[in-house]
């Protein structure tokens, strides 16, 4: 093939992607990928928090139901008492506490159940979930 002026003019007018255009498009794709990765990381963290919170809620409900099914004389002593649950293994450094307090009536006690655990990503961040119920010496209808 013989090179002429017309050959170079044809090559010059041919549209194509330059290095600058490809670098800019790569940069834009990189920024989009970084944003998507960050949002996935946040979504996974939120999902883990919700899972841990649901486990703690189940533990609280089980313990409150256990207490409410006991007789008044079978309640824990006044003050703080720790408890354990098989679901504690699902949480990081979990512990449970039952606090029995007097209320406005001597026949009624207030019971506060709490579950605490540490965040898996940040050991310094402790999470606590509490729930309270009242138990009457004369049964639930006496309140």
Q: What does the average pLDDT come to?
A: 84
Work out the radius of gyration. Answer: 32 Å
Gross geometry? rod-shaped
CATH topology: Pantoate--beta-alanine Ligase, Chain: A,domain 2
CATH class: Alpha Beta
Hey, roughly how much beta strand do the residues contain? 25-35%
**How many strands appear in the DSSP assignment?**
4
Number of domains: 1
Structural class: alpha+beta
Helix content: 40-55%
Q: Write the CATH homologous superfamily.
A: GSPII I/J protein-like
Instruction: Describe the largest sheet.
Output: 4 strands, antiparallel
- Which residue ranges are poorly predicted, with pLDDT under 50 across at least 5 consecutive positions? none
Number of helices: 2
CATH architecture: 2-Layer Sandwich
Taken in chain order, the helices and strands follow as: HHEEEE
Termini, distance in Å? 103 Å
Which strands sit side by side, in order, in the main sheet?
1-2-3-4
What does this structure look like?
With 143 residues, the protein is of the alpha+beta class. 41% of the residues lie in helices and 27% in strands. It has two helices and four strands, in the order ααββββ. It has helices spanning 5-13, 19-68, and strands at 79-83, 92-102, 108-118, 126-136. The longest helix has 50 residues, at 19-68. It is rod-shaped. 11% of the residues are buried.
